[in-house]
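Records of this kind hold a single protein each, on a pair of labelled lines. With that in mind, the following record should read easily:
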Amino acid sequence: MYKTIFSFLLVSVFSFQLSAQQLKDDLTRLQSGEDVKVLYRHEASFGLFMHSAGGFGMAYRRGEHVTAKRKRMFEIELSNFKHPKEVKSVNSYYSNSKGFVYGKLNSILLVRPGIGLQNVLYQKSDKKSVEIRYSYFVGATLAFAKPVYLEIKKGTFSSMPTTERYNPEIHKQEDIFGKASFFKGINKTIIYPAAYAKLALSFEYADRYNALKAIETGVVLDVYPKALPMIAYNKKQQAYISLYLKIIWGKKWF
């Protein structure tokens, strides 16, 4: 009888040690992002992107699983925005003139806060595979329009340029010496509110389950209730479509 009890206790202790070691190993693998079959419910990521409206931007995004293959997403983006007809030039009348965009009324900076959903099209089968997702977002667009100031030459070629806000009615192209400092007129910035919609396709390729690395491409539509003043002598637009390519990296947790 004593042998039976001793054997039972010995097996119990041994089993407990094995279970504890297994739990320790699972926790170690979990913290290192190795292949543990768990669902990381939350994620956060940063992104850098280039877009067809002639500029670059950055983004921050938070996600939370609604189901195993669907996430609720919150994002905010910051980027510059250029009119398709912006062309940089120099005044050939002056040998030391600076570059400017003739007809440009405002420099535009966009801030886009929004919400959306992300769905998995093809789920990862292992760490070395790629997960394909599609997502869609809607939200607000805040366009910060800072008026353009130029250095204007008046009178003789030797005269000193004066800094003035660009006015297409009075400033001739041959009188423009170049663009003034970007910060000139920043206190006269006007905010134009709008709405945006986005459709995106992303490819997630991180080699750890608690990490996030992806390439995303998509299309964005911005719609303004009031036309955005960008270039003089051009038809005013209230809607703009742009394509983008984004690199994303981040982390996941419970």
Observations:
- The two ends are 48 Å apart (CA to CA).
- The longest helix spans residues 2-31.
- The mean pLDDT is 86.
- DSSP finds one helix and 13 strands in the chain.
